[in-house]
Amino acid sequence: MTRNSDIGPEIPGTFVYLSRLLGRRLKSADGRFAGRLADLVAGMTERFPEVEAVVAATRTGRIVLPFSPGLLEAIMTGRPFDDTEPGGFEIVPPRFLIRRSLLDRQVVDVQGAKVVRVNDIHLLVHGSRMILVHVDIGFSGLVRRLGVEKGYRALAGLMRREPREELVSWKFVQPLTTSTGTTLVKLSLRNEQLRRLHPAELADIMEDLDPGERLALVRTMDPAHLDDAMEEVEEAVQAAIIGDLDTGLAADILEEMEPAAAADVVEMLPEVTQQRVMAAMEEEEREQLERLSVAEEDTAASLMTVEFVSCPEEATAGEALEAVRSALDEVRFINYVYCTDRSGRLSGVVSLRRLLKTPADSPLARIITTRFTTLAPGDGFDETADLFFKFRLQAIPVTDAEGRIEGVVTFEHSFDELLPFYRKLA
Q: What residues does each domain of the chain span?
């Protein structure tokens, strides 16, 4: 793609940087000074924002001029334009000020899965339209705005280094928030871009943002797509996010998170905030958190999740698989199905792998393992790590004194806490 950044006559396909337009003198039809270009107003479209108005700084203040072919020609060539067009143009969402909203702001580069700073804006002049197509995140964009581009290029030439443009297509940019005047405006975000990111990438982005930008990002996303990323973020950041969100959204996010991880976050919140958020949660999820919150620190109970798949031992393999399918949206880790007797005591365990290989009409009693390893709620981290290390299990059930299953400690979820003990055992 040709990137002609010189400002010349209106030519379809001409590219221009915003930094080279700012401050341009505008003249009215009678040759009088009409103002200097101070900003551009764009409207959000499906793919690329299009300029809809120009903000001009005059001797008495700022005015907003509706975009027109004549005004575009005046910007590009310096010719006078007809400034008698009706005013009353309002800058309301989904419109936003390009300079004020984006320059020197952090945005999410979805393609590179990182937070970047916008140093300049790359615009396309096509016919009578001006379209925002790229953001410039490179050093070249910064020196261009500072007015020292010629010196920078001369120095780069002496060093035999070609200055490199770093342009990110707008379709890969996820803006966070923008302010127009004193009103905070949320841009229309393309959330499907963020949903395609790996949770660890989204977590890295969240940690790179300042608190205000982080909240803006979280508020635009569906809680169902945030849970994995939230669990990857540092606990202090998790608590800060939940504590600053409105109660309903905070409760929705905690409900989507794995209960043990959600309980850890709630524990870090001030008591008043804990009560407020938990009161807004659904009864089942709230009861799960309450059970986990009373667990003693550094015990198996503090590591366990209360989400697992269980079946009566009289069930068939097919019925057990149906229970697994029904639990897929709620249970994060499904390595085993736990079988219980008529008294509710744990009577056997079968791996998901073996279940898949068993004919659907086979009774579970024939394939379950009746010699299994369990943890007591009060077992310490050292005992828990020892069992994982010794038996190479993916999950271990936690049972009460009567043998009823209370929860499950998974190897994946507990790994960070148990790592020091694994090192001792290695």
A: 1-188, 190-294, 303-425
